Amino acid sequence: MTDPIITHAFGTDPEGPKRIPLRLRPKPVLTVEDVANKKKGHYLFSFGYPGSGKTTLQWMMMNYLISKTKFDIDIAIPDNKEGPDWEGPAIINDWNKQWIEGRFPERTPAAESDIREIEITAQTTSGKKLDANFSFLEVSGELLQQVVPAKGVMPDLKPLLRAYLENQRLKFVVIFMLSPDREENDILFANFISYVKKSFPGLLDRMSIGVVLSKPEESLCRLREFGDATGRTGFTKLNTEAQIAYLKKFCPRTYNIWSGWPEKKPLLSPLYLGEIEIIEGEPRLMEFDFHHIEQIFFWLFEQFAGKRPGPTFWQRFTGWTKEWQ
């Protein structure tokens, strides 16, 4: 099937002529062959139920990188059979427009054909000269739930997502998005690890994990209401002690996976976004807070690049560390 063709046309707008594109290309679709042929790649794979904050994590991270001056970013424009694939920059542009308006991003559609990757290179602009290349792997929560077996139903993932996990040249950082809205988080996360062990030998050696509490205020309220594993309820803030207590209480199998992971410091962090107001029935981010997303990104950067961003030895020695505090 050929692309639909539109001839050049110019409007009569007083501000000047409007050029209609000569060719409208269909939305590019990744194939199993495309993924199987990849020679290398680092992937941020946010994992959780629908509405757990997977896309919001990536949206917030990109807006941090765009808004701050600590990093210079480049969004890849890969070539495919139809020509340059501009979908990655288009997605980031949409996120940036939503950010300007305080609107949260839309959920990722649930079709296999809507699985997307957005490749980013981030380079420090001060401090230690470092760069990291990685890709967001956008997958809907509806597709991820398929790793949970049920009576008469085998766990599985769509062929395209399996192709990523089967490619031994690819490495992953899997972030478990822990939302207090779902009681079954522990079932999903533990079954994913069991599925990986059984179906993809050696994948755990190419994988780092982290746990992010996507709604920290609600999580703290839940911990105070139901108490930790010992019955303690007097938590006043969601510090590291409270986060571990929450994980032990509500996701004990995930806690065992996280605490027993072979890497030294798997991530555990809340994700506070800032001040949110409901306007015309829609949540809007009115005042943003980059503290948590910056710490999450620094950890991710270290997984991808092997070193953590920060001031040089000379900057620490002379006290020029303000922008890294």
Flag low-confidence runs. Answer: 1-12
Strand-residue proportion? 15-25%
Order of SSEs, N→C?
HEHEEEHEEHHEHEHHHEEEHH
Q: Which secondary-structure class do the elements indicate?
A: alpha/beta
Any overview of this molecule?
The chain is an alpha/beta fold. It has one domain. It is 34% helix and 20% strand. It has 11 helices and 11 strands. It has helices at residues 32-36, 54-67, 87-101, 141-144, 159-166, 185-199, 216-226, 240-250, 252-259, 291-305, 313-318; strands at residues 41-47, 71-75, 79-80, 83-84, 116-124, 131-138, 170-178, 207-213, 267-270, 274-279, 282-288. It has a 7-stranded mixed β-sheet with strand order 2-5-6-1-7-8-9, with helices on both faces. Helix 2 packs across helix 3 (87-101) and helix 8 (240-250) crosses helix 9. The longest helix is centred in the first third of the chain and has 15 residues, at 87-101. The chain is globular and about 60 Å long.
Task: Throw out a few tags for this protein.
325 residues; seven-stranded mixed sheet; two-stranded antiparallel sheet; 11 helices; 11 strands
Short description:
This protein has 325 residues and is of the alpha/beta class. It contains 11 helices and 11 strands. Mean pLDDT is 89; it is low at 1-12.
Which secondary structure elements does this structure contain, and how are they paired or packed?
Blueprint: H1 32-36, E1 41-47, H2 54-67, E2 71-75, E3 79-80, E4 83-84, H3 87-101, E5 116-124, E6 131-138, H4 141-144, H5 159-166, E7 170-178, H6 185-199, E8 207-213, H7 216-226, H8 240-250, H9 252-259, E9 267-270, E10 274-279, E11 282-288, H10 291-305, H11 313-318
Parallel strand pairs: 1-6, 1-7, 7-8, 8-9
Antiparallel strand pairs: 2-5, 3-4, 5-6, 10-11
Helix pairs in contact: 2-3, 6-9, 8-9
